[in-house]
Write a structure and sequence with these properties.
Distance between the termini: 141 Å
Strand content: 15-25%
CATH superfamily of the largest domain: DD-peptidase/beta-lactamase superfamily
CATH architecture of the largest domain: 3-Layer(aba) Sandwich
Largest sheet: 7 strands, mixed
Number of helices: 21
Radius of gyration: 35 Å
CATH topology of the largest domain: Beta-lactamase
Shape: extended
Oligomer: single chain
């Protein structure tokens, strides 16, 4: 019995030892095979150190590959306190080079940390300062690559592009909205040290930084440059409170150019207020649109069959009475008897009050809703405003009347351009957008493509055609004559909106605007230009805002290779206008006869001969009367 018990105990002991052995083997297998990477990572963290290498942000391009935002390489100072033997001497020498106090530098190199980035004193150093630090050759003092955002155009497109902080994080504009895409993954130089931080003689490991994604915008650099120039010219000439410009492709919602004044320099953002930086006026500013809003009333009246522009007539006495209010036309004494086409050409407020009355409150406001007013367009930029439209239960006859000609409502430039695009493009409202694609950084291969987004149909093709014809007539015969471009069919509408403060209209303080497009028969580009409170000039949108809009339209013709169309309406000149005249062929004529033939121009004769052998501009060119024509006699 006793022997039997001993054998049983020995079996149990052997089994226990065997089980324990299997557990140990299993644990070793788990550590060496299954959990190796995790545990090895813990070990590496104890004896490895990383010198950070900042990744480049993605590049931002215009639609044709022009760089709008890229990066430059700079150097930053990093110290490893445990490797610095004489901390006092190192602090003194570095402080002298960086022009900071010795105490501030000593705090950096005495910190109880494995690696200390010297911030902000040691960030983005010049090559000269970096070389001085490198020549010290101190152990524990390192210079590492750092990427700095660069904006080649400085203030160019500043509110749209935005800016980045010192750590290359997006803080406004597209830099903020697409920060996740633009931000890359930082790399490092990994080295190994002992428990005291002393560098071991082991091979360093280089972890390459990964660049952020590139972004291609719908912006056209040529048109954008024209916009920036005209904005600067307007500031110089008129000293306005604000100036705004926006250019769009009406057939898909692509934004071709946008900017405003005042603007800011992204590289020096610290010098500006938060309001100056964050207010992207083309999508943020709200104000009464004035007569540019009449395009919406016109479209609604035509769609509902409330007016025949050529047959229906209206007598404008200079004002119209609505309930207890008298609403005036801009022309004292009125325009007299006119067709509704002339009502549009003359931008006659009482005539548009009649159109609003024919539509009725609900129908008028239904179309305002359909065209997208009172709601954000959804453009892919941050900071967009919604505008303000009357609540229908608060709209009486007077509010209905003033809304019909663009007074009493508040809209944004992006809403106006988007809505007018729908009125002239065949009747379709598109969602505006500015990011064309997101691209892989090495090959610039498209990763994500943005395409046009139809929101809704608002009017018919037939109505849209009538609207285009009416707005072309405004430029040829009406208030938009300053935007006429010889040889091209231009449509447009002027706007003169009195500004409001504390519920009262301000005296002699207006926002003057012009919205134009071409070709009028098949629009490819829409331009909006608004000047807020220009000083010392006549307060008429056509006079002040029309010419810069015309210049941008002309730049768009070149940038987009828009061909001259056929047909259209010829401009009716008045006695103040300079006419476009075709240059006759004078080659082969004697000098006196050539001068007589070119009597409408300033003729400059070069040479001593009697017969003209060459002329510039060449025969058939159309130029303004009084322009210079140079002839050569050989």
């Amino acid at each position: 019995m006793f022997t039997k018990n001993i054998h049983s105990r020995m079996k149990i002991a052997v089994l226990c030892f065997a089980f324990l052995f299997l557990v140990i083997i299993g644990k070793v297998f788990y550590i060496q095979v299954i959990d190796y990477k995790k545990i090895n990572g813990y070990a590496e963290n104890l004896w490895s150190r990383n010198l950070p290498i900042k990744a480049d942000r993605g590049i931002i391009y215009d639609r044709n590959g022009v760089i709008l935002a890229d990066n430059v390489t700079t150097t930053s100072l990093v110290v490893i306190p445990n490797q610095i033997k004489d901390k006092k001497k190192v602090a003194v020498d570095l402080a002298k080079i960086l022009n900071v106090s010795e105490d501030a530098m000593y705090k950096h190199i005495s910190k109880k940390t494995s690696i200390e980035r010297v911030h902000p004193e040691g960030r983005r150093l010049s090559y000269e300062i970096a070389d001085k630090i490198k020549n010290l050759n101190y152990e524990g003092v390192y210079l590492v690559k750092e990427s700095k955002r660069n904006y080649p155009g400085d203030t160019y497109l500043s509110h749209t592009l935005g800016y980045v902080g010192i750590d290359n994080q997006g803080l406004s504009g597209l830099e903020l909205m697409y920060d996740d895409c633009l931000t890359g993954e930082d790399g490092a130089i990994k080295y190994f040290s002992d428990a005291k931080g002393n560098k071991l003689k082991l091979n360093e490991v280089y972890e390459q930084p990964q660049k952020g994604m590139n972004i291609t915008l719908t912006i056209n650099d040529e048109i954008q440059k024209a916009v920036e120039k005209e904005l600067d010219n307007a500031v110089t000439k008129y000293n306005p409170d604000r100036v705004i410009a926006l250019v769009m492709n009406p057939n898909n919602g692509e934004i071709l150019a946008m900017s405003s004044r005042p603007n800011f320099s992204p590289a020096n953002y610290q010098k500006y207020t938060v309001e100056e930086i964050n207010r992207n006026l083309p999508i943020w500013a709200t104000y009464e649109p004035g007569s540019t809003f009449k395009i919406i009333t016109l479209s609604a009246a035509l769609e509902e069959g409330k007016v025949d522009l050529h047959k229906d007539k209206y007598h404008d006495s200079g004002s119209i009475r609505v309930e207890n209010a008298t609403l005036h036309c801009w022309k004292h004494g009125g325009h007299g008897s006119e067709t509704f086409m002339q009502v549009v050409e003359n931008s006659c407020n009482p005539g548009f009050v009649v159109l609003g009355q024919r539509l009725g409150k609900n129908t008028l406001f239904d179309y305002i809703d359909k065209f997208g007013f009172g709601a954000k367009t959804g453009v892919d930029l941050n900071g967009e405003a919604s505008g303000i439209i009357f609540s229908r239960d608060k709209v009486g006859p007077v509010e209905q009347a003033t809304t019909a000609f663009g007074q009493g409502v508040s809209v944004t430039p992006i809403q106006q351009v988007t809505a007018v695009s729908a009125a002239i493009n065949g009747g379709i409202l598109y969602k505006p957008y500015i990011v064309k694609s997101i691209n892989e950084p090495e090959t610039n291969t498209v990763v994500k493509q943005n395409n046009k987004t139809m929101v809704r149909r608002v009017v018919s093709e037939k109505t849209s055609k009538e609207v285009r014809e009416a707005l072309e007539s405004v430029v040829s015969n009406g208030t938009g004559r300053t935007a006429y471009i010889d040889g091209y069919r231009v449509g447009g509408k002027t706007g003169t909106a009195q500004k409001v403060s504390n519920g009262r209209y301000l005296y002699n303080n207006y926002i003057l605007s012009f919205i134009g497009f071409l070709p009028a028969d098949k629009p490819e580009v829409v331009v909006y230009f608004a000047i807020d409170n220009p000083k010392g000039v006549q307060q008429f949108g056509g006079v002040i805002a029309g010419p810069p809009a015309k210049t941008i339209l002309e730049a768009s013709i070149t940038a987009l290779n828009i061909e001259k169309p056929t047909g259209g309406t010829e401009k009716k000149y008045n006695y103040l206008d300079k006419k476009y005249i075709t240059v006759s062929n004078v080659v082969g004529m004697d000098v006196n006869k050539a001068k007589e033939t070119l009597k409408d121009f300033e003729v400059k004769v070069d040479g001593n001969g009697k017969t003209i052998t060459y002329q510039s501009p060449e025969a058939g060119s159309r130029i303004l009367e009084g322009s210079k024509v140079r002839v050569y006699t050989g």
